[in-house]
Amino acid sequence: MNKNIFTFRVHSLLVVYWLIVLNVVLYILVSPLSFLFQIDSSVIYDKIQLSQQFATLIEKPWTLISYAFFHANFWHLFFNMLLLYFGGILFLNLFSAKRFLFVYFIGIIIGGMAFVMAYQVFPRLNNMISYLVGASTGIMAILIFISTYTPSYRIYLFGVFAIPLWVLGIGLVLLDLVSIPISNSGGRIAHLGGALYGFLSAYFLKNNILVQRKKLVKRSFVQKRKTNTLSEEEKRKQEQVNIILDKISKSGYESLTNEEKTFLFKVSKSVGKKTDNTTI
């Protein structure tokens, strides 16, 4: 991954637009196709929706992904696409389209597996027949990923209320948890599966980046100390870096000020040019 991970950059939203268009087109096509081939729309959905039965999943393995491209009704589609667009903007401000698609589709797969497993494990669901459609699992993975990676970033509701992303993430998870006994139990559990993947993926990525950066910066100063070539300016930078790294180890990266983040990025970038390449 590019070393500018801590800087703000905007990627094209083209990948989000394509996903939205694809979902809308497939939703629209169900009705005319069922009319032209004189079949009920349920027959089409039977081919693409995810069943809670393992046997059906083995017969139709593609449904572990195809279910996420079809929606039960217009409002189901509308709100999912709205959240996909919102999550895409937040995600692509920091990461590439490639990572966005990876998190999105793995979230869909993990969420689908959580749905199937729930009907095998929980007695309350054992005798129920249920099917899963909708992009919510992938969207949850995206939203929880970005809420975990940049929890202090604030969004503004109606341009007035500032809410940090960690509040949004916790709110979405709690909403699904309390809704399990009320309605759409399997779908709620599928959401939580996608959310769990988004959280773990962001958590390990974030910690790996910080570890790599700390190693990179410390390695440079160790090498310079061995050759006794540290200038007064470099000694001052070293002391400042040590203070920042100690702060990260105690309170996390998000505790840094914007000035400290910028300084750490500049130092690690200059170090990367003088030492061996490190992929982050």
Write the layout of secondary structure elements.
Blueprint: H1 14-36, H2 41-48, E1 50-51, H3 54-59, H4 63-66, H5 74-92, H6 97-121, H7 123-126, E2 131-132, H8 136-149, E3 154-157, E4 161-164, H9 165-179, H10 185-226, H11 232-251, H12 258-274
Antiparallel strand pairs: 1-2, 3-4
Helix pairs in contact: 1-5, 5-8, 6-8, 6-10, 8-9, 8-10, 9-10, 10-12
Describe the structure.
- With 280 residues, the chain is mostly helical.
- The protein is 70% helix and 4% strand.
- The chain contains 12 helices and 4 strands.
- The protein has helices at residues 14-36, 41-48, 54-59, 63-66, 74-92, 97-121, 123-126, 136-149, 165-179, 185-226, 232-251, 258-274, and strands spanning 50-51, 131-132, 154-157, 161-164.
- The strands form 2 sheets. A two-stranded antiparallel ribbon has the order 1-2. A two-stranded antiparallel sheet has the order 3-4.
- α1 (14-36) runs antiparallel to α5 (74-92) and α8 (136-149) runs antiparallel to α9 (165-179).
- The radius of gyration is 23 Å and the shape is elongated.
- Mean pLDDT is 81; it is low at 1-10 and 271-280.
